[in-house]
Write a structure and sequence with these properties.
It is a single chain. The protein is α/β, with parallel strands linked by helices and 184 residues long. It has one domain: UDP N-Acetylglucosamine Acyltransferase, domain 1. It is built from 2 helices and 19 strands. Strand 18 and strand 19 form a beta hairpin. The longest helix has 18 residues. The termini are far apart.
Length: 184
């Protein structure tokens, strides 16, 4: 029986692919090996590539960003060491939000529901609200909305939207309790 081979077709435009190549060069030459506390410098590079980054945002040099123009980060938020922002689709991060080390934000996947051996790509935006904490080594899947104040525990995988001030743990992430705040 003769095997049937399918030619891979890019899902992205020539412009997107060109910007990605340019971004990869700039990332390795100017971004990745910059000193740790040069947060402003890295914000400027990302803004040049189309990211919407507010002031006082800390992005570490080891953060991997697939396409800066698909990223928005609001004031006083942080992307920690070795965070993977796989943003083939749009990713928005609210104010005062921490994305801890080794976390993975993935806004795309493949459609396996059709009998298509190419498994076509689809993208869905990830929206992370204000005052959230995505703890170390967590995973947030495509199309997810992390509501304001939510905490995604270490190594938790989130595949469903969260509730405001919810605390989630496990794989898949399960709602544990509501976050309680102490008065100052």
């Amino acid at each position: 029986m003769k095997k049937k081979y399918y030619k891979a077709k890019s899902t992205f435009t020539f412009k997107t692919n060109f910007v990605r190549v340019l971004w990869s060069i700039v990332y390795y030459l100017l971004f990745k090996f910059s000193p740790i506390y040069f947060f402003r410098y890295r914000r400027i590079i990302l803004i040049i590539f189309g990211a919407k980054i507010d002031k006082d945002v800390d992005i570490y040099p080891s953060v991997k960003i697939w396409l800066p123009s698909n990223l928005s980060v609001k004031k006083a938020s942080c992307l920690g060491r070795n965070v993977n922002v796989y943003n083939q689709g749009f990713i928005s991060i609210g104010k005062n939000t921490i994305i801890s080390q080794h976390s993975h934000l993935c806004s795309s996947s493949h459609n396996y529901s059709y009998k298509n051996p190419k498994l076509p790509l689809y993208t869905h935006p990830i929206i992370i609200g204000d005052n959230c904490w995505v703890c170390a080594d967590a995973f947030v899947g495509p199309g997810i909305k992390i509501s304001d104040g939510s905490i995604i525990g270490a190594r938790t995988a989130i595949f469903k939207d969260t509730v405001k001030d919810g605390v989630y743990l496990g794989n898949p992430g399960k709602f544990i309790k509501l976050r309680k705040y102490k008065k100052n």
